[in-house]
Design a protein that fits this description.
heterodimer; A: mainly alpha; elongated; B: three-stranded antiparallel sheet
Chain lengths: 180, 164
C-alpha cells in the first residue's frame, strides 16, 4: 500500500514496533548506569582537579544558592531519563500482554514521554559550552568525561524508542480498531 | 478550506534563516578573566568538543542545534519559493517528508536553557555576559513556533492538488 500523493509505503501499524522499542529501551538502560556513575566533566584548576558527575553538578548548583536551576537540572537530567525509561517499559509490557487497563491514561503517558524527552539534552549542551569557554591554560580547564557520551546515547536511544513505539497498539486489544 | 496563503510561512522561514545565521556567527557567551575576553560561537564549541575526543557528543550537538534547523529551513524554502511563483518543485514529497521526520530532533529551545545554565555556573569563576547569539536563538525558537502553526504540509499538499 502506498500514499497516492507522495508514494511513501503505508502501514497499519509501525513495522516491528515492539521489538524495535524493546531493543532501544534495553540499550538505554545499560547506558544509563555509566551515564550516572562516571564523571560527565572534569574541572582542572590551580588548586587541583575535580570530577563532576551529573548528580554532583546538581549538588553544586544547589549549595551555591541557585536552587531553582538545581531543581531544573535535576528534573531534566536525572528524573526525566529515568521516568521515561520506566514509562516506556510499562507501555511496551502492557502492549505485549494485550492489556486493556486504562488505555486513555497510557496514551496520555506516551504523549508526555514524547513531549518531555528532548529536555534531557540540557546537560550535554551545558558541557559543550563550558568546555568551549573554560580553556585558560594553566589557570583552569574543563574537559568532557566519559559519561557525556553515555548520557548523549541514552537521550538519543530513548527518543528513538518513543518514536518507534506505536501508541495505536495500546488500543488494539479494545475491540474493533481497524485491524492489524 | 480557503486558499492557503503562502506568504506568511515564507516570510517566517526567511526570518528564521536570518536569525539562524546571526545565532551561528555571533558569540553565545562572553567571559572576562583577568582582563582578557573569551567568547565562543556554537561552531567553535562543537569543534572544541570534537578535538577533546568526544566526537559522538560533538556530532549530537552539531546535528540537533545546527543541522536540523537548517535542514528544516531549507526544506521549507525549497517548497515555498517555487510554489509562490506557482510552480511545483521536482520531488516535492521529499522535503515535505524530511520536514516532519527532522522535527523531533531539533532542540534549539533546550540549547537556550543550556546557555543559561552555563552562564550561572560560570558566574562563580568569572564575569560573564550573554552574547548576541543567545537572543538570536531565543527569537529563532519563537519564529519556529510560529512556523509550526502556519506551515502545514497537509495544506501545502491540498494547495498543490488544487492547482496542478
Amino acid at each position: 500500500m502506498h500514499c497516492p500523493r507522495c508514494g511513501h509505503p503505508l502501514h497499519w501499524r509501525k513495522p516491528n514496533s515492539l521489538s524495535r522499542t524493546w531493543a532501544l529501551i534495553i540499550a538505554a538502560y545499560i547506558l544509563y548506569i555509566p551515564a550516572n556513575l562516571l564523571p560527565i566533566m572534569q574541572t582542572r584548576t590551580l588548586l587541583g582537579s575535580q570530577d563532576d558527575t551529573i548528580m554532583s553538578g546538581v549538588i553544586f548548583l544547589w549549595t551555591s544558592g541557585s536552587w531553582p536551576l538545581a531543581a531544573l537540572v535535576f528534573f531534566a537530567s536525572i528524573m526525566v531519563p529515568l521516568m521515561k525509561l520506566i514509562a516506556l517499559t510499562l507501555l511496551v509490557i502492557s502492549v505485549q500482554i494485550d492489556s486493556r487497563w486504562q488505555p486513555l491514561q497510557r496514551t496520555r503517558l506516551y504523549r508526555l514521554v514524547e513531549f518531555v524527552g528532548r529536555w534531557s539534552m540540557l546537560d550535554i549542551y551545558v558541557v559543550t559550552i563550558l568546555v568551549a569557554l573554560v580553556q585558560l591554560q594553566a589557570l583552569a580547564a574543563i574537559t568532557p568525561g566519559p559519561a557525556a557520551v553515555a548520557f548523549g546515547a541514552v537521550v538519543v536511544l530513548t527518543m528513538a524508542a518513543s518514536i518507534t513505539f506505536d501508541p495505536r497498539t495500546i488500543w488494539d486489544p479494545i475491540g474493533d480498531s481497524g485491524g492489524r | 478550506m480557503g486558499p492557503y496563503d503562502l506568504s506568511r510561512p515564507l516570510a517566517l522561514t526567511l526570518t528564521a534563516l536570518v536569525l539562524f545565521v546571526i545565532a551561528n556567527v555571533y558569540p553565545m557567551v562572553m567571559m572576562e578573566v583577568q582582563g582578557t575576553r573569551i567568547t565562543t560561537t556554537l561552531l567553535r564549541a562543537v569543534h572544541e568538543l570534537w578535538l577533546k575526543d568526544v566526537q559522538l557528543v560533538s556530532a549530537l550537538v552539531f546535528v540537533t542545534v545546527m543541522v536540523v534547523p537548517l535542514v528544516q529551513i531549507a526544506a521549507m524554502l525549497y517548497v515555498l519559493v517555487p510554489l509562490s511563483f506557482d510552480r511545483v518543485p521536482p520531488r516535492v514529497e521529499f522535503p515535505l517528508r524530511l520536514f516532519q521526520v527532522a522535527r523531533p530532533w531539533g532542540m534549539v529551545e533546550v540549547f537556550i536553557l543550556g546557555i543559561l545554565v552555563s552562564l550561572v555556573k560560570l558566574a562563580h569563576m568569572a564575569h560573564v555576559v550573554p552574547g548576541i547569539a543567545l537572543w538570536a536563538f531565543a527569537a529563532l525558537v519563537v519564529v519556529f513556533a510560529a512556523i509550526g502553526s502556519t506551515f502545514d504540509p497537509l495544506r501545502v499538499w491540498s494547495h498543490i492538488g488544487a492547482r496542478h
